[in-house]
Amino acid sequence: MANIIDGKKISQAVKDEVKAKCAELASQGITATLAVILVGEDPASQVYVNNKKKACEYCGIRSLSYELPADTAEDALIELIEELNARSDVNGILVQLPLPDGINEDRVLDTISPDKDVDGFHPVNVGKLSIGKKGFVSCTPAGVIQLLKRSGIEISGKECVVIGRSNIVGKPMSMLLLKENGTVTVAHSRTANLKEVTKRADILVVAIGKPKFIDASYIKDGAVVIDVGIHRGEDGKLCGDVDFDSASQVASYITPVPGGVGPMTIAMLMYNCLSSVI
Ligand code: NAP
After folding, report:
1. Interacting residues of 107 by C-beta distance below 8 A, sequence separation 6+
2. Is domain 29-114 annotated with CATH 3.40.50.450?
3. How far apart are the first and last CA of the chain?
4. Ligand 1, closest atom to CA 170?
5. pLDDT tens-digit profile of 55-98?
6. Digit-coded pLDDT (tens) for 166-190
7. Domain ranges of the chain
8. Which helix (H) or strand (E) holds 203?
9. 198 C-alpha to center of ligand 1: Å?
10. Measured between alpha carbons, how far is 142 from 138 in angstroms, rounded to an integer?
């Protein structure tokens, strides 16, 4: 039976470290400020935004909230971001995704100044990650690295397989594992013989977006399994992309859903907000 990687505990530790550093900065008169923009009334996005605001409050980061109606014009949103880019008292800008239909997400995200892009989605920050320069890193994959490191799991020299190649999870995840000297393979929907590929992995990161897709038959004995997926089943319960009951029989370490990768995303956002002022 696998050891459980406790994302709640590790994310709390990260937030407490950020909180301590923010308190130290506050005593020097420095406060990080995050501007959070929500367009429309998507209930899931409202929950995410509220959780981000609560985490800011906990850590001692000032948050400014911009809640705009769903019919906001793209140009008006761009104008708001440009104003926030120009404000010296705003260090981080976050636009909650997804945006309503009709708004060009790429244009919006590309407008955020790379120096304030705490989500790490701007092409400049993605480029910096790919050439090993310091910049903001996408929060979910950055959180996975923290889960591995803080659980004492060695990445260097290990066979790492990432399933999924999205811009916000799979691709930055593969670049971070490479930076940590893992030997990285990225699998996706066109990968032939997926099981053969995943069974090579010492560390398997699953970001497919399909509930309970990966069971024990995809996993090498003793592998570390990180489940990025999050889904709410018809029974109202949350589950991941990994079939936890089956996978935990063969893995050495595994993240649960909920309580694994999920809480790390906000913790790393707080870390990025702190980095925006130091
Ligand atoms: P996405 O944009 O839908 O990407 C899914 C990836 O999985 C794609 O690259 C796709 O390949 C690949 N894929 C789909 N079916 C496959 C199959 N049968 N075999 C192999 N690969 C397959 O999803 P995402 O945004 O990366 O998110 C992935 C999961 O993580 C979702 O469940 C999402 O809810 C969750 N998530 C969680 C957090 C968190 O904070 N915990 C944050 C972000 C996302 P192609 O590229 O070939 O289509």
Report:
1. 74, 78
2. no
3. 42
4. 26
5. 999 999 999 999 999 999 999 999 999 999 999 999 999 999 99
6. 999 999 999 999 999 999 999 999 9
7. 29-114, 139-262
8. strand 203-206
9. 15
10. 6
| Amino acid at the residue 71 | D
C-alpha 33 – ligand 1 centre gap (Å): 31
Comparing 29-114 with 139-262, is the CATH topology the same?
yes
The whole-angstrom separation of Cα 206 and Cα 212 is 10
Nearest-5° Cα angle at 208, 202 to 210: 120
Output phi, psi for 179, to 5 deg: -60, -30
d(CA 48, CA 95): 11
The one-letter amino acid code at 46 reads Q
Measured CA to CA, the distance from residue 9 to residue 51 in angstroms comes to 17
Alpha-carbon span 130 to 172, nearest angstrom = 8
What residue owns the CA closest to ligand 1's atom 48?
189
The string of pLDDT tens digits covering residues 116-147 is 999 999 999 999 999 999 999 999 999 999 99
* Residue with token string 């989605």: 121
What's the alpha-carbon Rg for the chain, to the nearest Å? 19
SS3 for 81-141 is HHHHHHCCCCCEEEECCCCCCCCCHHHHHHHCCHHHCCCCCCHHHHHHHHCCCCCCCCHHH
Candidates 3.40.50.2300, 3.40.50.720, 3.50.50.60, 1.10.287.110; CATH matching 139-262: 3.40.50.720
pLDDT at 234: 86
Q: Which residues are catalytic?
A: 52, 96, 119
